[in-house]
């Protein structure tokens, strides 16, 4: 059971219509806010409650580079991350599609001065939840339940509604708050794996997660909360989770793949490349003459730089084509 859905694609067709659509989308500088927040507990002993949407067997794992210093911010950009995480372009998921990995090939050092070798990291989707405690009122169980946990509910993401042209309508839509979890096995997913061993699933109950420690000593204490029979895969409430993921076009595979893409590496790491407003990747040297040296993510077949562009499955290529822009 999983909520990782692929978008249903119906491509619009025709040159004139495409030209109109391009003008319109260029005029609209706002980005679609499709990428959910990342699971993050910054302070020692901070905690939250989650409901995993991705069960044990569907956890995605990839080689990742962490704490990789970013290149200089583009002109006019004030808020720019010092370091970013990336997915290694040599991960077997891409089946040799990318001929290079800027970070591997150049033995780029991480923020701590060590070579930023890739490590296995795991990905899953979850809904962030919160404990509800009685406040003494009858609505919440009366005086006897004051201060006592009486239930768990979804936290809410308020998302701008978009019309058919991708512009905001002014309406806000409320969805269960989605979290992208990107953590190592050791200290995080291994704890969930142990619980999967007990229950056969990690989707049938909420987990209270508490950060224990800081830096590389961090472990996450994961405490299961009593299952809620009406909320597990196969129930109508679960179907609403699945629907909200689909409506928001959140696709975990696409989120992971984007972090290995040409645009991502050009934007954050490779100083010899740059990204224009449309997301096209160009050589810095060639940019002066206006030549597009390397295709952007919208132009994958010619972007491989390899002899063949059949290395990536059509399915994966579709997913990469459907990526949003990085929110880093
Ligand atoms: Zn790499």
3D structure, described in words:
- The chain has 328 residues and is α+β, with helices and mostly antiparallel strands.
- The chain has one domain.
- The chain contains nine helices and 13 strands.
- Strands 1, 2, 3, 4, 5, 6, 9, 10 and 11 form a nine-stranded mixed sheet that branches.
- A hairpin with a 5-residue loop joins strand 12 (273-275) and strand 13.
- The chain is globular and about 70 Å long.
- The protein starts with 14 loop residues before the first helix and ends in a 7-residue tail after the last helix.
- Mean pLDDT is 83; it is low at 25-32, 291-311 and 324-328.
- The structure holds zinc ion.
- Zinc ion (ZN) binds at residues 65, 88-90, 101, 103-104, 118.
- Zinc ion binds at residues 65, 88-90, 101, 103-104, 118.
What's a quick, concise take on this entry?
This protein has 328 residues and is an alpha+beta fold. 23% of the residues lie in helices and 26% in strands. The chain has one domain (29-321).
């Amino acid at each position: 059971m999983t909520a990782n859905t692929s978008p249903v694609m119906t491509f619009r067709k025709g040159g004139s219509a495409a030209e109109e659509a391009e003008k319109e989308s260029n005029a609209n500088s706002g980005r679609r806010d499709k990428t959910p927040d990342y699971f993050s507990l910054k302070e020692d002993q901070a905690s939250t409650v989650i409901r995993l949407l991705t069960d044990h067997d569907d956890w995605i794992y990839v080689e990742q580079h962490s704490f990789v210093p970013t290149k200089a911010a583009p002109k006019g950009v004030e808020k720019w991350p010092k370091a970013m995480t990336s997915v290694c372009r040599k991960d077997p998921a891409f089946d040799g599609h990318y001929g290079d990995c800027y970070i591997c090939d150049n033995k780029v050092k991480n923020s701590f001065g060590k070579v930023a070798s890739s490590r296995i990291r795991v990905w899953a989707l979850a809904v962030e939840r919160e404990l509800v405690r009685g406040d003494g009122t009858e609505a919440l169980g009366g005086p006897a339940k004051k201060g006592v946990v009486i239930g768990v509910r979804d936290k809410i993401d308020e998302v701008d509604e978009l019309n058919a042209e991708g512009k905001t309508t002014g309406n806000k839509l409320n969805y269960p708050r989605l979290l992208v979890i990107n953590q190592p096995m050791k200290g995080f997913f291994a704890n969930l794996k142990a619980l999967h061993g007990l229950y056969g699933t990690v989707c049938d109950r909420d987990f209270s997660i508490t950060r224990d420690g800081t830096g590389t000593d961090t472990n996450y204490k994961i405490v299961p909360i009593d299952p809620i029979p009406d909320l597990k895969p196969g129930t109508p409430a679960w179907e609403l989770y699945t629907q909200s993921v689909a409506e928001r076009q959140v696709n975990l595979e696409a989120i992971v793949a984007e972090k290995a893409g040409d645009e991502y590496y050009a934007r954050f790491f490779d100083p010899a490349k740059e990204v224009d407003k449309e997301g096209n990747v160009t050589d810095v040297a060639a940019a002066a003459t206006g030549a597009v040296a390397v295709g952007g993510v919208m132009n994958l077949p010619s972007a491989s730089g390899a002899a063949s562009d059949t290395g990536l499955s059509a399915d994966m290529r579709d997913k990469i084509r459907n990526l949003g822009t990085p929110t880093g």
